[in-house]
Amino acid sequence: MSELRELAMTSKAWPFEEARKLVKRFAKNPPASGYVLFETGYGPSGLPHIGTFGEVARTTMIRRAFEAISDIPTRLICFSDDLDGMRKVPSNVPNPAALQEHLQRPLSDVPDPFGEYDSFAAHNNAMLRRFLDTFGFQYDFISSAEFYRSGKFDEILLRCVEKYDDIMAVMLASLREGRRATYSIFLPISAKTGRVLYVPMKSVDAGAGTITFDDEDGEEVTMSVTGGQVKLQWKPDFGARWAALGVDFEMYGKDHSTNTHIYDKICRILGAPAPAHYVYEMFLDKEGQKISKSSGNGISIDDWLKYASAESLSYFMYQKPRTAKRLHFDVIPKMVDEYHQQLRAFPEQDLKARLNNPVWHIHRGQPPVSDMVVPFSMLLNLASASNAETKEQMWGFIRKYAPDATPETHPGVDAAAGQAVAYFHDFVKPDKTYRAASEHEQAALQDLATRLSNWDGDADGDALQSLVFSVGKDHGFEPLRDWFKAIYEVLLGESQGPRFGGFIALYGIPETVALINNALAGGLLKQESSGDL
């Protein structure tokens, strides 16, 4: 056994913990298909959000961890439930009123409100695939509508007819009394209206493979369950899909966790072993509410990529999957800087530590070298202090701090500089609130400006930080954090800020002196009131 495999078998990194469970699952009997099948499911009822991406990213991390400790091949499929009826019109699409007449029709039959694809589902599926391709995921895409309508699901549907009573018994035990009277595992699609019907079955004929029900106009209809004329309710669909595809692993959110035993039982009734599971906690918006595709209260992948790298998003997804986390714009700077901290730590770590480092799982064990000579949080403060409009302005400061860095040699810094400018203008600038310094603070700030003007050493962040500390102590700030808070609020318009010595080194000593003098003269307050900030 290789050293990597040996250490991975005891690693506490959660992808390896889940991968080891799969190794144990197939220790005696390898999968009949010859590969371990990982699946992720997606409902295209609205524009894809980061939660969707996270499910694929995390599943891929477990898949790669499994490949590091097992010789069994793997496959990942991304399954879109695009035959589901549109239950409500999303609020974040053009002209939502025009979709009202298509309620309850399969998403694959609803017109694309963006006018780009054959259907709303096709639009959302294309967006999802573009996002997944951007991140280099290896997967096979399956459309539920195509799967049902092409006949690929016919065999399992006929088996559902044969096992109708057994599956119904599982479902009825989980339903309230009032719902039991009208429930059926089958949802016929009306040949007259094209809508997915939630109607009780009058009869189910296992021999003929048909169901009988009353259509919307009251007419009795007998219909074959094959060929995409009928789909399964979502809970039976979970179990049936696992059985039909031979799924070995699926991850899903906590909102599904109470149904796991139902999915498993149905899968077994249909003759297949239930897959392994991993349940993750939900993502929350800035108000602490669950994010939703239809309400659009989450962050899209494009939103994140406007302000930060793709890798920082993967890093966010790695963190504590079983802990509910706020997924809002304010988490982005921290994720960028922590990701690069882990990149910088990786080369000096032994193999055991590397296997526990998130970047091993993000980059399949071969992370790049970080070129972030300036932390993202510092770039944000630089953009704030200089009111930067372009990343070229930012490079004027970056070159003073790191003379050998260029956009060509440090593409990560170059991208981050532009992203920091965008983040500053969209999130920091609107909330900046400057205040005037008190007499005590004025004296200290003037002293700091004087000492900086007389500085004859290098622009070393540590040395400059010591200078800032000395000024605070000499002027009797107790605790010293009040001194730094005054600096941030008077000079940067924020209650928190960077390690100020490092900021001075990056922004420039003369520029910092000018910033202090402008603030003491009331210039920043005038700019704020005029809206020039």
3D architecture notes:
The protein has 533 residues and is an alpha/beta fold. It folds into 3 domains: 3-284, Rossmann fold (3-Layer(aba) Sandwich); 301-362, no CATH class; 376-530, Arc Repressor Mutant, subunit A (Orthogonal Bundle), CATH 1.10.10.350. The chain is 47% helix and 10% strand. It has helices at residues 3-8, 14-25, 50-69, 120-134, 144-149, 154-162, 164-172, 177-180, 234-245, 260-269, 301-307, 310-318, 332-345, 351-355, 358-362, 376-386, 391-401, 411-428, 439-453, 461-474, 481-492, 500-507, 509-520, 523-530, and strands spanning 36-42, 74-80, 140-143, 186-188, 203-205, 210-214, 220-224, 230-232, 249-253, 276-280, 283-284, 325-326. Helix 7 packs antiparallel against helix 10, helix 16 packs across helix 22 (500-507) and helix 19 packs antiparallel against helix 20 (461-474). The protein is elongated and about 95 Å long. The N and C termini lie far apart (61 Å). 41% of the residues are buried.
Characteristics:
single chain; 533 residues; alpha/beta; Rossmann fold; Arc Repressor Mutant, subunit A; 3 domains; 5-stranded parallel beta sheet; 3-stranded antiparallel beta sheet; 24 helices
Concise structural overview:
The chain is α/β, with parallel strands linked by helices and 533 residues long.
